[in-house]
Amino acid sequence: MRLRRGLRLGLVMALLGSVLAPLHPTAASAVTLPNGFQEQVVFSGLSQPTNIEFAPDGRVFVAEKGGRIKVYTDLADPTPTVFADLSRDVHNQWDRGLLGLALPADFPANPWVYVLYTYDAPPGQTAPVWNDTCGDANNGRCLVTGRLSRLRAAGDVMTGSEQVLISDWCQQYPSHSVGDLRFGADGMLYATAGDGASFSATDYGQLGNPANPCADPPGGTMTPPTAEGGALRAQDVRTAADPTGLDGAVLRLDPATGAAAPGNPAIGAADPNTRRIVGYGARNPFRFTIRPGTNEVWFGDVGWNSWEEVNRIADPRAGVTNFGWPCYEGPTRMGSYDNANLNLCETLYTGAGQTSPYFAYHHSAPVVPGENCGSGGDAVSGLAFYPGSGGNYPAAYAGALFFADYSRGCIWAMRPSAPGGLPDPVNIEAFGQAAAGPVDLAIGPGAELYYADMGGGTVRRIRYFPGNQPPTAVIQATPTTGPAPLDVSFDGTASTDPDPADAGRLSYKWDFTSDGTVDASTPTATFRYPSNGSYTATLTVTDTLGSSASSTVRIQPGNAAPTALLDSPVLGTTWRVGDTLSFAGRATDPQQGNLPASALRWKLRMEHCESVGNCHTHHLREWTGVASGSFVAPDHEYPSYLELELTATDAQGLSNTVLRRLDPRTVDLTFGTDPAGLRLSVGPTTGTAPFTRTVIVGSTNTVSAPGSQSAGGTAYSFAGWSDGGAATHVVTAPETATTYTASYAGVSGCGAAPGYVCGTATDRPWLSAGTVLPLTGDDAVTSVELPFPVPLFGQGYRTAWVSGNGFVSFTDPGGPQPVNAVLPAAGAPNAALYPFWDDLWVRSDSSVRTAVTGTAPNRKFVVEWRNSGIYGSSSARISFAAVIGEDGEIVFNYRDLSSSGRERGDSATVGIENQTGTVALSYSVNRPVLADGTSIVFRPVAQQPFVAERGGNRQSPLGGRLPR
User: Measuring CA to CA, how many Å separate 107 from each of 111, 339, 438?
Assistant: First the structure.
């Protein structure tokens, strides 16, 4: 699970439901389904169920996040048996826990139950180490591992000891933990797990104290470009020089041993983990499924800031598939890791690349236009294939892939467009809208879709009724507690039936004391409970065709709920990352007086918001049976806040809950570049500077300045950060607003801009000019009429202004403009050619000249600066020229330049610019890169690609490649 957002462990309140014979499921009323479908609660009262498995003999196994596995005899069994309790070894904090569960196809003849869980110990240590109580599990120091085991079943309980098949998966951060288990048609066991890296920062192994506690190679603190840690663990199989880890990978295993399965594509590798891997480059492959009758692996990969993915491994035996994380997210490069200049990503960008997702959806867009799915983040959290034949759902769902998003609270159906075909990404239906937090999907008995509702503690199924649909019974009872005698008003008018013919025609039967007697048959009723006790009132509603549903409510005359009192932290308490906050509370009860600490239960949650009021939940910690304690404020993105919940429960089971919201202290950090307008990455986002981010004081924020980038046709190289940090480094948010600026220097070289490409050549002739312009001394400028319309950036010009300071402008520059600038620049000059824009001097032995050569339509207009002086030097002399072609080609020629300094351009701008100063193609800015005999050529892209003659070989000006 994840998270910036990972699998969000929110509390979802269980819904009142009804009973439908013969299996007694409870109908759930919140979800919106297609016509004819209805959701029912099958099991309830579970503690954060994460995984459902249906045994061939009718039993149902359910994994709970805390480490217990429960087994139900069948769907009608209301009371499960605890098959195994692994809670001592399972690390249950944040998104870690018992997440994977699988049964072989021939269970129980093959009597093994397979589990995948977060092991409560760092590598090489024995659980329990943390006992689920890392002070701040998100500080990079709460190290755990993953464990894949099998448990032998003897009836409904585990027998013997746990058989550990794999211990691996070093996980530094409390999300992207272990994932899922499934058996393929080949009888092999498949497994997934996340990268164990930070979900707040760009993590390549530099985080933690000590840094890189997972000892990712090459060891010690990771630095670009050679870093291989953090999220880069998902690319570890590519670094054959060191042992391979299993983080961020899909495994195909021998279920008897946990070793690589026969036929794996890397079975001949020396490293045993390399042999196990059939797919990698995943961030958090929390859930996957196998396409029925095949070994195709379809997994959901929970994204970071932009994309959720559904990925497909068509044949796990054909080759090892790289899905690209962290270098890619969705179909595009992941900007934060791209800008960190990491070898493992750069070689992926320039090499074979990655396998794009089968389907991806963006966090800012609906999966299906017009859907009524929630917002507040995204986490693809369940996948299941509907059978290709034999199911009772409509034929359109045959072979469909159901997939869910926990945070959006939705289930979609990706249906084939042709019978027997693959699910088609253009044929997706919003199937279950406003579902109850699905974290696992499964096709169970009756070929019906089931899902685990972790927050509400239920297992639900979605049934299809091609004919009459049953009603939904809803009870409202007021009051449900109080002194006896207790008069209670009952209201069943919120009950509904989805069939229009039954609307308003339901019949009602009330049994107020669970004795089987019908006490009332009206939609509303009142009943007096004369004495103390606990009663279950039942409403049964029946439609016109005899389908019934029931709902119950508990009535307790003589008892009143306790009052929970949260004493600390007090209202208005704020926190910064790393602060220790103490809590204390108590409770009183009208019947019992002061309740003992054993009656108290605490929950700590992080509400992480995409925007104000648009939040999802991380479940951080729980405390049971204590009146006080403390916790460490965690590192997290903003907007977010903590929520502390205290629940007091009396001896009769009545409870009262109070909440306290704890807001963080925040600070605004501004990120800029010099020059402005370049791009930077901060955490998961990349933007054009300057921009400001609000963060929590004390939070960890990774900032990345790309080593090189371009803007407006000018290339730049990173020079340094204002805080002295490396190009990619960590900023710990200070108490006060701070600005961080990345400085860049202009870099010489050719590139491309809208309308032009640039190249260099050594064979262009020097064209001398004979007409001397009236330019003398310092800061001189004059206008000339052009012999033909000169095209530049889509405009044509007949007049030019020539400056003694080394430029030609086709609009009035308003003066000689002796101070050069970075291009493009809105200020004058504009619509200009800059062969050598510097503060120059037309001395007595200098001149500026023009000439026209050739015949139409191939004429050239030459502007030559001959023997020009440089301001501040009495001896320096340079010669250069701009040759303007009637066909739009522009050539800058140079001679008499010295070998260094200003004569080679270290205080000059060289390039071309459009009329508005918004687009330019710059060759150099203040860089001593000009040379005698080397021409700079700008050619319109509408013409054939520029080639230069070098020893008879024609070459691209970009070294054999076009700009990209």
Answer: 6, 50, 26
